[in-house]
Every structure is written in C-alpha cells, then in structure tokens.
Amino acid sequence: MNSILIIGGAGFIGSNLSLILNEQGFKVTIVDQFNAIDQNSNIKFIQGNFSDTNFLGSLFRKEKFDVVIQLVSTLIPSSDYGEFNNSKDLNSFANFELIKIMLENNSDKLIFFSSGGTVYGKCNMPLINEEEKLKPHNYYGFSKLLIEEYIQLQGRLNNLKYVIVRPSNPYGRGQKVHSKQGLIVVAMGKILNNQAIDIWGDGSIVRDYLHISDLCFAVNEILKSNNWQKIYNIGSGEGVSVKDLLYLIENTIQRKMDINYYPSRITDVPSNVLDISKIRNEIGWKPTVSLTNGIKDLWETISKN
Ligand SMILES: NC(=O)c1ccc[n+]([C@@H]2O[C@H](COP(=O)([O-])OP(=O)(O)OC[C@H]3O[C@@H](n4cnc5c(N)ncnc54)[C@H](O)[C@@H]3O)[C@@H](O)[C@H]2O)c1
After folding, report:
1. Per-chain mean pLDDT for the chain
2. Do 302 and 188 meet the contact criterion of CB atoms below 8 Å apart?
3. Whose CA is nearest to atom 39 of ligand 1?
4. Which ligand 1 atom sits closest to the C-alpha of 90?
5. Domains of the chain, with CATH numbers?
6. pLDDT tens-digit profile of 73-106?
7. How would you classify the pairing of strands 240-241 and 206-207?
8. Which pLDDT belongs to residue 179?
9. What is the Å distance from ligand 1's center to 33 Cα?
10. What is the pTM of this model?
11. What whole-number distance in Å separates Cα of residue 14 and Cα of residue 30?
C-alpha cells in the first residue's frame, strides 16, 4: 500500500498531507485544478478537473493507485442553497463517479474527508461519538452526509474499502488569511490588517480545533493500520468557546483585536466537540500539538509573510 492519489491535494489540507505522507515513504500523486506544488519535491502533480469523468477514467486506466484520498469540496458551512444547488455535480455526483471509475479499474480503497464539525448538527452531548445520528444543520454538512451514505452503500454492494474521516476544525500553515473559513487564521489576518473580526452570536459557541499536522498524522496512521470500512472522528477532543479562543490568540501573540458581533446564524450549532476515543483505541493516534503552540506556529508563518 504505497501509491496514494490525493484529489484536491493542492489545497490547505492536501498540501500539508501530501508532504507528510511523502516524508513517511508513500509515493504521492496529486490531482487538482491548480498547481501549488514545489517543483523540486518528488510529489507528482497532475492538473485536472475532478468532475471530468473522461479525465479520471483515463488516469485510472493509465496508473495504479493503492489508496485514493478525496478532498475536493467547494462548499463551506455558511454556503446557502444557491451554492449547494450550483455545485451539486461536483460535491455529490463527481464523488459517485469517482467510486465507479475506481472500482472499474481495480482500485478499491478510498479515504473520504467528511466534516466532524457539521454532519452531526445540534447535539446535547458534551462529546460527540461516531454512533451519533447525523442531522446536519447546513448544506455543507448535508452534502457530506449524502456522500458518506453513498460510500457506505458501495461498501455493501461492491466491497469498496473506505475510511470516512470526520475532522473537526483543522488550522495551521497553508491556510489563507483571506479565506471565509478557519476562525484562527482569519482572526490573525484581521490583526495584521488592523481590521475588526466579524463574529456571529455572542462568542459562546464551542468548537474543537485541531492542528493540521495532527490531522495529517492521523491519516498516516489510518493508512498504516490498513483497517477499512471505518468511520473516525479526528479532533482534539477539547472544546473552546469562540470568545476564549480569541482571548487565547490575543494573549499568545500579544496583539489586541477588535470584534464586531452580529446576530447568530441558524447554520451554527451551539457546541461541537468530537469524541476521539475510537481512533485512539483502534489505531493508537492522539493529538500532540497544544492549541497555544499551534497558534504560535501559525502566527510565526503568517506574520513573516
Ligand atoms: N478546512 C477545514 O476546516 C475542513 C474541516 C473538515 C473537513 N474538511 C474537508 O477537507 C477537504 C479539504 O479541505 P481544505 O480546507 O483543504 O479545502 P481547500 O479548499 O483548501 O482545498 C480543496 C482543493 O480542491 C481543489 N478543487 C476544487 N474544485 C476542484 C475541481 N473541480 N477539480 C480539481 N480540484 C478541485 C482546489 O483547487 C483546492 O486545492 C474538503 O473536503 C473539506 O470539506 C475541511
């Protein structure tokens, strides 16, 4: 199990994951619509559109991949119905077609990135485990639920070997300060530009933040374990309110920030903290980077650039 294809591998998670898997000895190929790979690395880059079935078909006929990791998604938790509707081919059918093409070409192992922060929706539990019923509260989470269900159907019908990962809120190097997602990096961008940060609600909502390197090493451990037909939460297992997080950022980097508070959004659930005991018990992975150290590390790169 050596050759890995990462689709959407030039983005935030993919660029970190490809480097770490490459360092760990995997032969990594990236497919993405944009090239963001260092030409000197021995990671192979192929430019292509995930929703182009002819392109994917000829790729899988030409090359053999032991495991495919699918990262492409153009939705985010605040996406509305219009965005969901306009991108439904890419965010649902392209995934179904990928699996069909994989199985036709004897490639039967898939790691799919779902969303631990959104598929569960509103839960009363302090820690949410993988057995919890999925009741997403936004279109992004709903699109992930749809793909998760399809993947499990293909597990039953065609013995697709899958791992569905449900990450919490990864943060770290490679995240863009001007993106619409990622509270930590967005807050740092606002500090650098002397702008106020917009917060929906009173800052009491609680989330689980995970350093990107911890997420990538979790995937490395999943690959090494060779356990399939699995679903894993991947998070820190610890909850922090938005207010406390902003306070921690200010204290850690010794800079003040201005905050604009807006009415809360229906798509934001009050609390989401993942129970990570399943992946810890079955695979032995646990997070190692504290939130304070992760914030310091990210600020160091962002403030330099
Ligand atoms: N970042 C997070 O907070 C987070 C949290 C949980 C789950 N996830 C999931 O992890 C995955 C990766 O997230 P990310 O933050 O790295 O996203 P990202 O937007 O940084 O990366 C996605 C990549 O997909 C590529 N892409 C988009 N459309 C494409 C197409 N038609 N053909 C080929 N490539 C295309 C983009 O160019 C980009 O490089 C997503 O599925 C996301 O839903 C992300």
Report:
1. 95
2. yes
3. 11
4. 31
5. 3-171+210-238+273-287 (3.40.50.720)
6. 999 999 999 999 999 999 999 999 999 999 999 9
7. antiparallel
8. 83
9. 11
10. 0.97
11. 8
pLDDT digits (tens, 9 = 90+) for 171-224: 999 999 888 889 999 999 999 999 999 999 999 999 999 999 999 999 999 999
**C-alpha 286 to ligand 1 mean position (Å):** 23
277 three-class SS: helix
Query: In residues, how long is the chain?
Result: 305
Each residue's pLDDT tens digit, 220-255: 999 999 999 999 999 999 999 999 999 999 999 999
Which tokens go with 129? Answer: 């485990």
**Span 158-177, average pLDDT:** 97
For residue 158, report the distance from its CA to the centre of ligand 1, in Å: 27
Contact 167/116 with Cβ under 8 angstroms?
yes
Q: Which two tokens stand for residue 27?
A: 């032969």
Supply the pLDDT for residue 41.
78
Residues with CB under 6 A from ligand 1: 8, 10-14, 32-34, 49-51, 71-74, 90, 113, 115, 117, 167, 169-170, 181-182
Q: Are 171 and 107 in contact (CB under 8 A)?
A: no
Q: How does residue 168 score in pLDDT terms, banded at 50, 70 and 90?
A: very high
Q: Cα of 72 to ligand 1 centre, how many Å?
A: 4
- Residue 46 host element (H or E): strand 44-47
Taking residue 248's Cβ as centre, other Cβ atoms within 10 Å add up to 16
Q: Which ligand 1 atom is the nearest neighbour of the CA of 14?
A: 16
Task: Give me the residue label for tokens 């994917």.
Answer: 56
